Amino acid sequence: MKLLITLLLVFFASAAYAQSGERYLVLNKPGHIKRIRFVEGDELSFRLKGDKKRYTAEISKIYPDAILFGEVYVPLKNIRSVRYHKDTYLANMVRISSITAVNAGLTIAGIGLASGMVNAASNDGPVYNSLLLGGLWLAGSGTVIKPLYRRNYKLGPNRWLSTIEFAHPPHDAVLIRP
């Protein structure tokens, strides 16, 4: 039993040492989830101050006050907003249903509009109008649920980017045995 505990402690200590020296980019924000963490290799979508274009790039290196995207060095203070894409099962289902609702709604609205134009002389007008309105409602609902899987965070006094670095453990650390 002592051997098993010793092996587990050595394993966890080596795992902690392997992770030491890593930096994380953190989006601090109010709410239930206080921080969103980004690591090297993650894709980040952001806007710079004074620029309307949105940039999307993979994080190559994280410095204490800046991020390196490929060969471009971007200071944290120059970033105006960050777009966060949730990558969970539920978020992916919401994204798929949103895209499907918009496409199906526009198709149904187009069929209703075309049928209403063709059959303008007939008395079936309310049926085609309901197709048009139902299709537009479906497309609108698909557009409304889009922020559930993609959120823009405008940086300011309540939301800010910072870096966290895990330091190396001291070499004279004492192993506590039970």
Sequence of strands across the biggest β-sheet: 4-3-8-9
How is the biggest beta sheet arranged?
Answer: 4 strands, antiparallel
Given as residue ranges, the uncertain stretches (5+ residues, pLDDT < 50) are 16-20
In N-to-C order, the SSE pattern is HEEEEEEEEHHEE
Shape: elongated
Q: What's the domain count? A: 2
Taking the alpha carbons of the first and last residues, their distance comes to 11 Å
Instruction: Count the E strands.
Output: 10
Proportion of helical residues? 25-40%
> DSSP helix count?
3
- Radius of gyration (Å): 26 Å
> Overall mean pLDDT score?
77
Structural class: alpha+beta
Beta-strand percentage range: 25-35%
Describe, in plain words, how this protein is organized in 3D.
- The structure is a single chain.
- The chain is α+β, with helices and mostly antiparallel strands and 178 residues long.
- The longest helix has 30 residues.
- A hairpin with a 5-residue loop joins β3 and β4.
- It is elongated.
- It folds into two domains: 79 residues, no CATH class; 59 residues.
